[in-house]
Amino acid sequence: MRQIPRLRQTSSLLCSAAAPSLQRDVFCRASTSLLRHQFSITAAPHETSPGLDKWRRRLWKGEPAGAEDPYTGHTEDDKRAILTQSAELQELGRGGTDDYTIEEHVNIETDFSIPPELRSAARPEEIDDPQYVPAESAEGLDEVGDLADWWENESHWSSSKNFVGFGPRRKIHDASVLEVLTRRAVTEALVVRHDDPELLTALWERGGKEDLTRALSLGIEVAEDGSARLTGDAGAVVRYLRWEPAEESSQEVAAEATSELSADEAREFLKSWDQSWKNVSLEDAHLKFAVTKRILQLTGQVIPDSKLPSIRTAKTLLSVLVRPPRAKKLSEAIQIQGDLSNLPNVTVFPRRVTPIDKDKMIGRWKIIARELEKRGLPVTGTSGYTKHKEKEYFQGKA
Length: 398
What we know:
Elements lengths: L9 H5 L6 H18 L11 H11 L15 H18 L81 H21 L13 H8 L2 E4 L5 E4 L2 H8 L7 H4 L10 H9 L13 H15 L14 H8 L8 H8 L17 H8 L2 H10 L14 H7 L3
Antiparallel strand pairs: 1-2
């Protein structure tokens, strides 16, 4: 840190009582100028030190930006470069485009509806028509649309850019259809594991009705240990499962593939199979991943990760995937479970039990209804009679 030098006692040396008044004034002015010079705080020229350069390099993670001496202005070379650039920009602004080539139109190959090329109207001084009168306001002029909301218009987009999800748009909840598609997923995964194991983790074509029939036509023979053997043309199944990005079938068939199988068709398939295929082992993690991924692609149903360890066969997979419809009332849920309704001393009612229901259970309601009819009183309800006035008396309303 810079320090102010200590002042010498110039007043005692220069100013003397024995000196004439004229000389005292002169010496006092000299001492004043000397004091001003010594109290000057003008910064000295900046001097860089090796330590400062080291900290600057650490701060900037390399060579520091800017000039080496930030307290100095631009060098002569920098000034000449700035003047040269300014002259070039001024020449370009005046229309000196002899050294530049401007491309007027660029042809872009795309299936989008690209905005039209902008055209500028001629300025008034450039028009030679003597009948031309410049407009002073916008009244009566034709309005044309701008390009601000051009891409908000759906007609300007191509159908090839429409979003196509991995699964169907609507989930499948029918139990018969889910079981048929589960067999298809298991069959295709077994075929791929046997012929091309690397395809297990790849993207598969969703396929159409022909692919569904081709996969379901394969037979499954399950051994006691859960291993399966397929019978039929398995090579064709693998060939049509490979996803081809260049083909449009991946996107065209994707939205309608799963909806082509109706519930009646699914029941017909189930009648032609036995239940032995449900014993296929899914202990292999790669096979289980391929099956669950294929089920998501075909049905839209997601198998929770917490359920995956408990899935060991196709049967346990169906127990997780095919769930009964949720009951709307508590009584319906109790009837479906059957634990309480099977007890001899428990009765489940679909609604609240009223006092009239209790009288009907013991056979007393017929007597009560007959006596009410004899007295001309309504059996149920008020039948036009007003409420008793005593209630209003008690409430202080009368």
